[in-house]
Structure prediction request, 264 residues.
Amino acid sequence: MLESLQRAPLLELNSVTVVRGDVPALRDVTLRIHAAENVCILGPNGCGKSTLIKTITRECYPLARQDSSISIMGKERWNVSELRSHLGIVSQDLLAACTSDAKGLDVVLSSFFSSTHIFPHHHPSGEQLARAYAALERLGIRHLADRPVSQMSSGESKRTLIARALVHNPQTLLFDEPASALDIAAQFQLRDVMRQLAQSGLGIILVTHHVSEIIPEIDRVILLKDGRILADGAKDRVLTSELLSSLFAVPVQLFRSDGYFHIH
Prediction:
């Protein structure tokens, strides 16, 4: 079973439309991402990025149409808790849901219970505790195990969320606007962590509206605008001044330095 999941595309959407309220947030999107790929989904606020993430995590569902389908790792139906053991999610929404007294170890352990805290009815096993400590150790933050989230820096809390996502040893990590609320030093630290994870063989899906967040290990970029795919392909071909000007609807000049792209 696990082998078949690893062989299948991580994500396959065919003519998918997702409506939120009365407005289509994704419009007839066809997209395939493989488990080992390092991909960036880039677009302005309101382009459909959040809806795409929620569709992947089964918080949103597409319109039921005969020509439309969505599968994750080859399966159209998932138990959401099982899905999260294969796909690690790092998002600001998760951090906002953590209670102020939740400690680092609690946050990481909560991944086993699909929550954001350890509550009285949760009883982590010895194996789960060992895996949680190993995830903290992997990111060099074991010392945060007993520190409340409210007393962590923004960078520390973000790395704690990454440890939470890693505790299941997922095939792919999905980063949703990961640099949100981080200062410059924490942004550089986050980039280093993402690069190390990508180099370790994990697939990375980065969802952002900042070109400068795209780490050198990302090979493919998907431009999303008004719920549609504007461009999809190799990073060097898609990241151009012309395409980015169209994407953000402002004149953009693009330059590259040390493997990163920047705009002004």
Residues 98-169 form one domain.
